Amino acid sequence: CDHPEQLTTPFKDTFGRGETSIAASAQEVRCAGGVLEGATMSDHGYVIINMFFDAVDAVAEDSGIVPGAQDAISDPTPGRVTKGGGGALFQDER
Predict the structure, then answer these.
(1) Distance between CA atoms of 94 and 80, rounded to whole angstroms?
(2) Quick check: 48 and 41 in contact, CB under 8 A?
(3) Environment class of residue 55 by beta-carbon count within 10 Å: exposed (0-12), middle (13-18) or buried (19+)?
(4) Phi then psi for 85, rounded to 5 degrees?
(5) Which residue from 79, 54, 80 is spatially nearest to 67, judged by alpha carbons?
(6) Where are the alpha helices (DSSP H) in 1-94?
(7) Which of 4, 9, 15, 28 yields a CA-CA distance of 20 to 30 A from 72?
(8) How many angstroms from the chain centroid is the CA of residue 44?
């Protein structure tokens, strides 16, 4: 934790909810004795911000294209939440 002051530095919330900081949004993350605590870290020591996964039904056909990937969508808004196979919710960026 080289710059603990960055935890309280305000930044614009990407969803238009004003300003926030890491300290306000992720209260479990803190610096203690020069070590970042409370953050999920990768095997190589980098902070993990989000986990990405394939939807349960995202199995490519022989063409290499996942079924439904080229279907027209009624709400082409990037970032909308879609329910995938098994009921998992994820952001669909098409």
Answers:
(1) 9
(2) yes
(3) middle
(4) -60, 145
(5) 54
(6) 22-25
(7) 15
(8) 19
- The answer for residues whose C-beta is within 8 angstroms of residue 90's C-beta and 6 or more apart is 53, 55, 81, 82, 84
Q: Are 19 and 12 in contact (CB under 8 A)?
A: yes
For the segment 11-28, what is each residue's pLDDT rounded down to a tens digit? Answer: 998 777 789 999 998 999
77 against 46, higher pLDDT: 46
Q: Which residue is listed with tokens 């070590």?
A: 35
Residue 30 is encoded by which pair of tokens?
A: 């803190």
Say what the pTM is. 0.50
CA contacts within 13 A on the Cβ side of 41 = 10
Averaged pLDDT for residues 56-62:
62
pLDDT digits (tens, 9 = 90+) for 38-54: 998 889 988 888 776 65
